[in-house]
Amino acid sequence: VQLQASGGGLVQAGGSLRLSCAASGGTFSRYRMGWFRQAPGKEREFVSAIRSNSIGRDYADSVKGRFTISRDNAKNTVYLQMNSLKPEDTAVYYCAADPPGSRSWDYWGQGTLVTVSS
């Protein structure tokens, strides 16, 4: 499975961005998909995840109410809509895939940089 993240960029605090992650080479509709981020000098952290049926969605407390994860199984793509961005959201954002039966994030994209200026 190959994952290609895109949509990062420079935005002012309070602004919005939408990240996309396109998957290929696997049965996307069966995977749980997630977003993680890693800020400079910090460990990678969980941001959000969505189950294959789109019903189950999880968010880190730090992004609840501001970020929304969604997916389009017809397009093999998962999205992260980020609103009310804060400087502390600055990080490289990675998408990941958890295949059925795995219970772990087996596949990772290359990351896309989000920079939020104050």
Note the topology.
Elements (H helix, E strand, L loop, with lengths): L1 E5 L2 E4 L4 E8 L7 E7 L6 E6 L6 E3 L7 E6 L4 E6 L8 E8 L8 E2 L3 E6 L1
Parallel strand pairs: 2-11
Antiparallel strand pairs: 1-3, 3-8, 4-5, 4-9, 5-6, 7-8, 9-10, 9-11
List keywords for this structure.
single chain; 118 residues; mainly beta
Describe this structure as you would to a colleague.
The protein has 118 residues and is an all-beta fold. The chain is built from no helices and 11 strands. Strands 2, 4, 5, 6, 9, 10 and 11 form a 7-stranded mixed beta sheet that branches. Strands 1-3-8-7 form a 4-stranded antiparallel beta sheet, with no helix packed on it. A hairpin with a 4-residue loop joins β7 (67-72) and β8. The protein starts with a strand and ends with a strand.
Please give the count of helices. 0
Main sheet makeup: 7 strands, mixed
How big a fraction of the residues is strand? over 45%
Count of beta strands:
11
Residue ranges: pLDDT <50 for 5 or more in a row?
none
N-to-C CA distance:
37 Å
Described by the principal axes of the CA atoms, the overall outline is globular
Mean pLDDT: 96
Q: Helix/strand-derived class?
A: mainly beta
Overall radius of gyration:
13 Å
Order of helices and strands: EEEEEEEEEEE
Helix content: under 10%
